[in-house]
């Protein structure tokens, strides 16, 4: 029993630690994908109630599937949503541009592994320290709850932008 | 003289034509860069007076210079600004997402060639037909005029987003 507790403590401290191999790790074990701003644009978005401006990007697998209209997205797809405080441009106040970094969130597709949350693993990293969000892995209940109304779109709110 | 006129007519018809090598061409000769949505994100932006949501992307040369803080940007830098009509998300109306495509604009750095407009060549392609904007090449007066207040930032409004 004591052995089990020790093992648990070690697992918890690893899962909850801010850095693993130099990358922050969410309480459910998902590590930050550091290259999320090198991925292709899925869409910009603006959240007026929170005063945030965002961009949603996707890795190659996700973007290829979104372009082809493949639903559900295949395993290996990862989407990132990056949020900044929206600030009025000093030279052009009717335009809002990104100010301070707020957070980055990920949805990682692994249909079997995350079958209880629609096949998606969720993770959020907050502020300039990229602090993993959530005390334990039950934080995903909040994410999944809010994404459930869009179950018909594979739990995704965002569609690939249209361009001619 | 007749020869000169014929040459002029040919040049004009080429410059003003909607398609050259399958790409629309602006009246100043700048052809659409078809891969602008594969470029890296510089920043999202939101224009409340026009109800538009945008994303600014840059080619490799531009993004490398912006990251390094190199000003003015080197020749070969190209920035794109893509605009969509902002629409409230049907499942989440406080979030605005891209609807219909409005236009794509480019700024192309060639310090010598475009020295009268801060070293930047401007081009805009409107709507799903990507109609080149401007009756003749004097259309750039409008672009340059509006970008002149940000001459101190190499005529760019947008800064590279910050992320940790
Ligand atoms: C209160 C509702 C709500 C909650 C809670 C929520 N989301 Fe979202 N999420 C949204 C909406 C709405 C969008 C669409 C884009 C936007 O609003 O900027 C979105 C978009 C996303 C995207 C981009 C893909 C898509 O579906 O459009 C990711 C990734 C994401 N959320 C991750 C998370 C994670 C991780 C959590 C929990 C830690 C979370 N979300 C919790 C409402 C929510
Ligand atoms: C009425 C003012 C105005 C005019 C006219 C204007 N722009 Fe801009 N432009 C802006 C502002 C403000 C931004 C910052 C981003 C935003 O508002 O979405 C911008 C951004 C851009 C960008 C992205 C790089 C940057 O500077 O941020 C490009 C490319 C661009 N404009 C091209 C053009 C072209 C091409 C034309 C003319 C055909 C033009 N602009 C005319 C105001 C203007």
UniProtKB/TrEMBL annotation, chains A, B:
Signal sequence bounds: 1-20
Presence of the UniProt keyword Signal in the record: yes
Cited Gene3D superfamilies: Cytochrome P460
All copies of domain Cytochrome P460, residue ranges: 35-158
Domain of life: Bacteria
Keywords assigned by UniProt, alphabetized: Signal
Protein name: Cytochrome P460 family protein
């Amino acid at each position: 029993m004591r052995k089990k507790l020790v093992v648990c403590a070690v697992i918890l401290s690893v899962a909850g630690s801010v850095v693993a191999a130099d990358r922050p790790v969410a309480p459910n074990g998902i590590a930050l994908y550091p290259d999320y701003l090198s991925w292709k644009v899925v869409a910009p978005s603006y959240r007026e109630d929170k005063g945030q401006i965002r961009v949603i990007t996707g890795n190659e697998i996700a973007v290829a599937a979104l372009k082809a209209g493949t639903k559900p997205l295949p395993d290996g797809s990862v989407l990132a949503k990056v949020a900044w405080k929206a600030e009025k441009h000093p030279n052009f106040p009717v335009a809002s541009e990104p100010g301070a970094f707020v957070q980055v969130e990920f949805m990682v597709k692994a249909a079997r592994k995350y079958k209880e949350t629609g096949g998606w693993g969720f993770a959020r990293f907050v502020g300039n320290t990229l602090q993993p969000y959530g005390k334990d892995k039950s934080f995903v209940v909040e994410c999944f709850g809010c994404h459930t109304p869009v179950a018909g779109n594979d739990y995704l709110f965002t569609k690939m932008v249209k361009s001619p």
